[in-house]
Amino acid sequence: MKILIIEDEKELAHNISAYLSDENYLCEFAETFQQALEKIEVYNYDCILLDLMLPGGDGLKILEELKKQDKQDGVIIISAKDSLKDKIAGLQIGADDYLAKPFHLSELAARIYSVIRRKQFGNSNIIKLHELQIDLLAKTILVHNEPVILTKKEFDLLLLFIGNKNRVISKSALAEHLSGDIADMLDNHDFVYAHIKNMKKKLVDAGYQNYLKTIYGTGYKWEA
Amino acid sequence: MGSMNKLLNRPLKAFTLYALLVLACSIPVYYFIVDYIWRNELDEYNEIVRNRIESGLNKLSLDKEEWAQTIALWNKTQPGTKIEKSLFQESRSDSIYTIIRQKQSANDEDLERFRGLSSYIKVQGELYHLTIEINVEEAHETVFAIAAVTVLFFIILLAGFVILNRRIATQIWKPFHSTLDRLKSFDLNSQNNINLEKSDIQEFEQLNQALYQLIAKNISVFRQQKEFTENASHELQTPLAVLKSKIDLLMQNESLTESQSELIASLNIPLSRVSRINKNLLLLAKIENQQFSEGELVNMSELVNQNLDFLEEHLRARNNTVEMEICEHCYITANRSLVEIMLVNLLLNAIRHNYENGAIRIELTDKSLTISNTGTEPLISETLFKRFITSSTSTPSSGLGLAIVQEIAHRYDWKVDYHFINNFHQFSVLF
């Protein structure tokens, strides 16, 4: 899987790359508007991470260029601006997702995973993992071909884990994933624990092996 | 403003007092002048009378007996004058005098003032003593008349002052009041420059110019400050993102011990708070800079229910009961995201500052939204809505939640109220 990180903050770009590198992802970098234009013209990527404020130009222009060239690359906007206007403009031009800085890498990885799945599998988007089957469109799961009913939050958590296999996800990242913007307004992240416990119980009861490991009570890791 | 004086009333008072003083002083002065002229005129008159008598008598050619009869008759018929044979041989110089005595003719007891001339005349070789007396107006009568006239003029003057003052106040101060009204309605936040009425009075025009300069400077400083907040917050997002991603990366290290892992995870909490403060500052700057599109019809009933669902687990975690009284199909016109931010901030506030097993009440009508939660003691309402001033010591917060609520309400001219009633903190927004 090829990913292009268009981001002028080198440190951030390399952190993203380091986090993604374990999983079959190959990252390339573009630091300026010009570099980005050159790269998208020559290569195709499975997913492009696009910062909007770039030296040399507006990131939205790159998005327009992609659409003009009729490229099918998935695009996730990562912006410091968090403005609704930019978000709507970006999504209208054809971005697949919008993530405001600062974000957890696990959140980004889950979104990249989801964008790539959508691009690759379209209407029959089913993830198979050992005895687990997840239908991303219908939002249903099967364990040993038997349906398991998860709440929306449990399902969201499962997807976050699947998008971050073999990586430790902190409680804080899980809380943000579940409550979005308001997670950091709630200083208590214990509610995460209840959801994970319930999800785990449902899966294990249905005969799924326990792949979800607790790491010192500070985070969780899905081992697969 | 009860004890405050209007500007024009001060000179009016001073003018009135001054006029009173001058007029009061003028009374004795007038009296002395009038009396002086009066006496002079009478003296002249007496002199004329004396000369006329002297020449008149000299023209007569009478013998001694007739002469004596004439003088006796004269003294009887001419009450103001008296002719007597002189006791002296030599003529003496004239003398003038004032005497106060009873009138000869009248019966009343009134004392009258007389101006007299005592003179010696020579009639046909004989020296006679002639006294002429004429009635002068008495001093107290003159003073009274002058005082009465002066008081009358003073009243006319005072009435004139008051009327003129009133007229000047309404006319001359018109541009001033217009400037004052516009200043009162001026809102620094609106970024609109002020437009003051032109005046042909130099002082007011100077005032207007000074105000223009002051306001222009204020607007520019205010704008710079707001831009600074927005830019600073933007600039902070990227380093925060780097920090957050570093922590995420560090957590992947498999050789971490438990204490190291806990240390790293604990970094996320202050980091979240910094991110939240930064986001809130950015949000405040955006609201102030009017970067939110105006309005749409927002279904409040639906919005409250949606957000309650969202927060349900947090309510459950603290075992809080919720009482709701929500009107159906209540709409307000505002920016949807702003209304939602306001609502979430109020709800979170109620959850966060509540104790376990406490209660939360939500009441929505088409005129107001009231969210109350159980509490132990009233919060300091003066500083409640100020930025970064936490009114409670129990839970740390970004210190901006209520400031944002206030700012959003301010934008739509809604009123935010806080009351502590029956152990309930009650926040209400009046649409």
TrEMBL record, chain A:
User: What InterPro entries has UniProt attached to this entry?
Assistant: CheY-like_superfamily, OmpR/PhoB-type_DNA-bd, Sig_transdc_resp-reg_receiver, WalR-like, WH-like_DNA-bd_sf
4-aspartylphosphate-modified residues are: D51
Q: Give an example GO cellular component term for this record.
A: cytosol
List residues annotated as DNA-binding. Answer: 124-224
Superkingdom of this entry's organism? Bacteria
The record places domain OmpR/PhoB-type at 124-224
| Keyword Disulfide bond part of the UniProt annotation | no
GO terms of biological process kind: regulation of DNA-templated transcription
A single GO molecular function, which one? Answer: transcription cis-regulatory region binding
| SUPFAM superfamilies hit by this protein | CheY-like
Pfam families reported in the protein's UniProt record: Response_reg, Trans_reg_C
Keyword Phosphoprotein, does the record have it?
yes
Response regulatory domain boundaries: 2-116
Keywords for the protein's UniProt record, in alphabetical order: DNA-binding, Phosphoprotein, Transcription, Transcription regulation, Two-component regulatory system
This protein is called what? Response regulator transcription factor
From TrEMBL, chain B:
Q: Which reaction does it catalyse?
A: ATP + protein L-histidine = ADP + protein N-phospho-L-histidine
Mind telling me which residue stretches traverse the membrane in this protein? 12-33, 143-164
What domain of life does the native source organism fall in? Bacteria
Q: What molecular functions are annotated in GO for this chain?
A: phosphorelay sensor kinase activity
Q: Name one GO cellular component term.
A: plasma membrane
EC numbers, comma separated:
2.7.13.3
**What keywords tag this UniProt record?**
Kinase, Membrane, Phosphoprotein, Transferase, Transmembrane, Transmembrane helix
Q: Provide the top EC class.
A: transferase
What residues does the Histidine kinase domain cover?
Answer: 231-431
Know the name of this protein?
Answer: histidine kinase
Q: What is the lineage of its organism?
A: Bacteria, Pseudomonadati, Bacteroidota, Cytophagia, Cytophagales
